[in-house]
Design a protein that fits this description.
alpha/beta; seven-stranded mixed sheet; 9 helices; 41% helix; 24% strand
Length: 284
């Protein structure tokens, strides 16, 4: 007798894998943590397999889970394609979204994936740039929605959350112990002057070892243990880790994640995308 997999459970399983944990996946799916856990358990019982390794702080896939993940992505992709083609598609057009590169992950991919399912005929153009340029593009009407990292929110925006900046370095690296402290930043990084001032107040000598227009160059330099950098907590780039410095480096300020949405664009579409972004940042 044919047996059917639970699509909702499969979607929760993929979300947990992508988010690295049940709690954050629940926020992205707009479900409770217990509901997501129950769906994963139901999927494991249906397959009679353990899919998640729950022995460590961060949830990891078992060998069976890794094997299922590829199938699950293909099944969900086909399901979403069928649904998109066979149901009402009254909204068309293009939405331009601007996001600073250092907060694209982990929220924005989930947002765009969900939006594409809900509005399959709306094209989304994602622009990754620095806050000052995004604010100027928004002022000119070149983008419909932007996220920013700022000390305070502008009059037409809303603050979604406020997060601390943290020191990041190479995994297992030692650059943070060196003096003068070697720094790596983009020329346009909004955080660099505040970080330099914090180091000056703490009496820690520093030198700007890497300056670039490319975030990839900075990330590569940091991951190679050539310098240290700062990131918004929860949005660390790959191949680096938060430095556990035990007070050897100064605490840093917090930054607001602010949302600005145009009131001149297509209301239902822009409103739906803005709400998905809000939901992503409500995730604990």
């Amino acid at each position: 007798m044919a047996r059917n997999l639970d699509m909702t459970a499969l979607r929760s399983f993929v979300a947990v894998s992508d988010a690295g944990g049940v709690t954050r996946a629940a926020g992205f799916l707009n479900l409770t943590q217990s509901a997501v856990s129950m769906q994963i358990k139901r999927l494991e019982e249906a397959l009679d397999l353990q899919l998640l390794d729950r022995t460590e702080r961060k949830v990891k896939l078992t060998a069976s889970g890794e094997q299922l993940l590829g199938y699950a992505r293909r099944i969900l992709s086909l399901n979403d394609e069928v649904y998109a083609r066979m149901t009402a598609q009254e909204y068309e057009g293009e939405v331009v979204v601007g996001v600073p590169h250092d907060i694209v992950y982990p929220a924005i991919p989930f947002v765009l994936n969900r939006f594409a399912r809900d509005f399959p005929r709306v094209k989304v153009q994602l622009i990754s740039s620095y806050t000052m340029r995004l604010r100027e593009m928004f002022r000119r009407g070149d983008v419909d929605i932007i996220l920013t990292t700022e000390d305070r929110c502008g009059p037409t925006g809303e603050t979604l959350t406020e997060l601390p900046l943290v020191w990041v370095g190479a995994i297992g690296g030692t650059a943070w112990r060196q003096r003068p402290l070697r720094l790596a930043y983009e020329h346009t990084c909004i955080f660099r002057q505040g970080v330099q001032a914090a180091l000056d107040r703490a009496g820690i000598p520093w030198v700007m070892t890497v300056e670039s227009d490319s975030s990839r160059t900075v990330e590569a330099s940091v991951s190679a243990d050539l310098a240290v950098h700062t990131s918004v907590d929860g949005a660390l780039p790959p191949y680096v880790e938060r430095i556990q410095h035990g007070g050897a480096l100064p605490d840093l300020k917090t930054t607001q994640i602010n949302l600005y949405a145009s009131d001149l664009a297509d209301g239902p579409v822009i409103g739906a995308l803005a709400e998905l972004i809000r939901q992503a940042y409500r995730a604990p």
